[in-house]
Design goal:
Elements (H helix, E strand, L loop, with lengths): L1 H18 L11 H7 L15 E5 L3 H6 L1 H10 L4 E6 L2 H10 L4 E5 L5 H11 L3 E5 L5 H9 L4 E6 L3 H7 L3 H9 L1 E6 L2 H9 L13 H4 L17 E7 L4 H11 L7 E6 L5 H10 L4 E3 L12 E3 L6 H7 L2 E4 L12 H5 L3 E4 L7 H10 L2 E3 L3 H10 L3 H15 L7 H13 L7
Parallel strand pairs: 1-2, 1-4, 2-3, 4-5, 5-6, 7-8, 7-11, 8-10, 9-10, 11-12, 12-13
Helix pairs in contact: 6-7, 7-9, 12-17, 16-18
Length: 425
């Protein structure tokens, strides 16, 4: 731990020179950089003003989107409660700001340096820290334990790889888990791994998978000029998957010339790379971030924006779920299923293993391994009635996994840990 603290102190100094030194010359420094590298200095975020403050942290867009209903529930049940939402990414910061939640501040989470975290907590004085999924930042959690700040983890996930890594540092892991008052895992395997790493059984609550109960949001409207049954969505694709999807799409269009593709990459910053891949394949396309609208004459629409996936789920009859052909654990099948899309996926689905197992048992999803098998699946699913039947079967298969009852246990645990009064909890 001493080595980690020395390392983070050194890194913080270097980062401040890199990102904050321009201010010496009167040059502007972005708000996210200040939030990441300096203690809070905004009275709006100060825990001494107004009602009690809950610090709510989610790593990025996906985690916070899945937790939006929790934020709204807390604000609705406790009229004087204030929330400080932190995230690791600028895009997620912007997204939550656009929600315009009452009594809610949004900022980048502090860099995990001991002094910076201590100053952050001393300034804000929150009543509790709620983390979505799980991010085991040592200085953050150990400082919470030192000041007896309750830490609750909602929908926690622990992969086999992460468990193996943390298992090499049992002393540090025990210290980190000492700060945790309550943890609800998102699946049984994650729960077992937390137990194996030393989390006390009496701190574990019912399973909660927020992405299984979060309704897809449609932040706006788009006039999609094509039938759903002839539209394929590639949702949240990662580097290495776009080429596979595009090759499969080109192949499938030989027998389904009316097929159109919505390509929605996980990271919009890859726009130029993906546009180059489409150009090399001779595919006409329009790009969302360039202000271009869908066009029936163009076979591909590059949906390279964040927070709009609900629009594309609603437009597509077929949905390839990204992160599953590359070793990224796969993304949620719950949202495309809720929107009535047939699910296609690769072999890497560890992040939602129980959900994909249920879909497989019901014959409600199509597993693929490469461009050839993806093209075959697309060609085999041309019939709209077949698509509708599979979509209904998928919703039924996932329904038993969508029990939101575990959230009641979380709300009760939060009330007990903080001493705050939440009506109807």
């Amino acid at each position: 731990m001493v080595c980690y603290r020395l390392l983070t102190a050194l890194i913080l100094g270097l980062l401040r020179m890199r990102f904050l030194a321009p201010a010496v010359f009167g040059l502007p420094v972005s708000a996210p950089c200040r939030e990441w590298l300096l203690p809070p200095d905004n009275r709006r975020d100060d825990g001494r003003d107004g009602g009690p403050l809950i610090w709510f942290h989610g790593a990025s867009n996906g985690e916070l989107t899945s937790a939006r209903a929790v934020l709204e529930t807390l604000l609705g049940r406790a009229p004087d409660l204030r929330l400080l939402v932190t995230t690791n990414t600028v895009s997620a910061r912007r997204m939550v700001m656009q929600w315009n939640l009452p009594r809610t501040s949004v900022r980048i989470a502090p860099f995990d340096n001991r002094a910076l975290v201590a100053a952050f907590l001393a300034r804000l004085r929150p009543a509790a820290l709620i983390m979505i999924e799980s991010e085991l930042w040592p200085n953050r959690l150990i400082r919470c334990a030192e000041i007896n700040l309750p830490v609750l983890v909602l929908g926690a996930r622990m992969s086999a790889r992460s468990a193996g890594l943390w298992g090499r540092f049992p002393g540090l892991t025990r210290k980190l888990f000492g700060a945790v008052r309550y943890l609800s895992a998102q699946d049984l395997l994650s729960e077992a791994r937390f137990c194996d790493l030393g989390l006390a059984a009496d701190k574990i609550g019912p399973l909660v998978n927020l992405k299984s109960v979060a309704a897809p949001t449609t932040p706006g409207q788009v006039l999609w000029p094509h039938p759903r049954s002839e539209t394929l969505l590639a949702a949240s694709t990662h580097a290495g998957e776009d080429a596979i999807v595009l090759d499969a799409f080109v192949s499938a269009r030989r027998s389904r010339p009316g097929l159109q593709l919505i390509l929605a990459p996980r990271h919009p910053r890859r726009r130029a790379e993906i546009e180059a891949q489409m150009t090399r394949r001779g595919l006409g396309f329009a790009t969302r971030s360039r202000g271009q609208q869908p066009d029936a004459a163009l076979p591909v629409y590059l949906a390279d924006t964040l927070g709009e996936m609900g629009l594309w789920y609603a437009a597509a009859g077929l949905c390839f779920v990204g992160g599953s052909l590359t070793d990224n654990g796969g993304h949620t099948p719950f949202e495309p299923a809720a929107c009535g899309a047939v699910i296609l996926h690769g072999p890497h689905v560890a992040n939602f293993a129980a959900a994909y197992a249920a879909l497989t048992r019901a014959g409600a999803a199509c597993a693929v391994t490469d461009a050839a098998t993806l093209a075959q699946a697309i060609q085999a699913l041309a019939d709209p009635s077949r698509q509708s039947s599979l979509a209904q079967t998928a919703r039924a298969a996932l329904l038993p996994l969508q029990d939101a009852g575990g959230l009641d246990g979380f709300y009760r645990a939060l009330a007990v840990a903080t001493g705050l009064k939440f009506p109807a909890i």
